[in-house]
Amino acid sequence: MLVIGAPPRGGFPDSLNCPAPAVLNRVETWEVAVQDYARRLGFAVGLCLAATGLIAPAAFARDVKPVAVASANPGVAATSSADESQQTAPGAGQKSRLPYYVDFRARTAASYGHAFIWFGRTSDRKVEVAGLHPATDSVVPYIIGHVVPVPAETGASYGDLDEEYLLASYRIYLTEPEARVVFAYIKQKQANSPLWNAATYNCVMFISDIAKFMGMKVPGSHLLYPEDWVKQLYALNGGRKTVRIMVNQ
């Protein structure tokens, strides 16, 4: 059994036992060793999950370089977010009654990518972000989260607001009454999603629940790459830009 905070039985591998320079603080040296060991452990865990089919076998090979913005619709050319709002928004006659949106998005990350949503008012430059991810920038909880649930956050993470990392985007427009209902649900999900686990409840499952609440058809698996999931969401719903949500008047 591996006890977090203590070295594994038998000590760290020889490559981690090299003497640190005297000028380095022992605490810093220990932290580096733990993180390096966690990365090695995570790679082994990932291979095991891939072998059992819990994650896509090619997950560790996915390119994480910044890419151009890609629409979920293969037939639509890549655009910036500003251009996208102009090109995909409803017609002028509908704008006044569809002033809100939920945007299902996927971006690059250091592993499989990340799925999240933007939501807000179309006329506002500021956006709200909701997405499930480990509650830290450290690699250690992320690795542990492939085995057991770890504490999560549900707001913006690094890269969520940067268009250069965006892989796919599918935006749905809402009336004000619809937005009140959907946004309240999103806030409820954020307040009641304390844990993240790569296999059972991950970022894709989080936004999948939101899409289902909105009455949309969703892909059958939450273990797809985020980019593939968003593109399948688009295809399953015929690329429509609106949904019908029951609102109590």
Strand content: 5-15%
Instruction: Give helix and strand order, one letter per element, not per position.
Output: HHHEEEEHEEHEHH
Low-confidence stretches: 1-8, 11-71, 73-87
Derived from helix and strand composition plus strand pairing, the structural class reads: alpha+beta
Mean residue pLDDT: 74
By DSSP (H or I, 4+ residues per run), the number of helices equals 7
Distance between termini? Answer: 56 Å
The Rg value, from CA coordinates, equals 21 Å
Spatial ordering of strands, largest sheet:
3-2-1-6
Oligomer: single chain
Give the count of structural domains: 2
Largest β-sheet summary? 4 strands, antiparallel
β-strand number:
7
- Shape field: globular
Q: Can you give the helix content as a percent range? A: 25-40%
Short recap of the structure:
With 249 residues, the chain is α+β, with helices and mostly antiparallel strands. The chain has seven helices and seven strands; from the N terminus they run αααββββαββαβαα.
Question: What attributes characterize this protein structure?
Answer:
single chain, 249 residues, alpha+beta, 4-stranded antiparallel β-sheet, 3-stranded antiparallel β-sheet, 33% helix, disordered N terminus
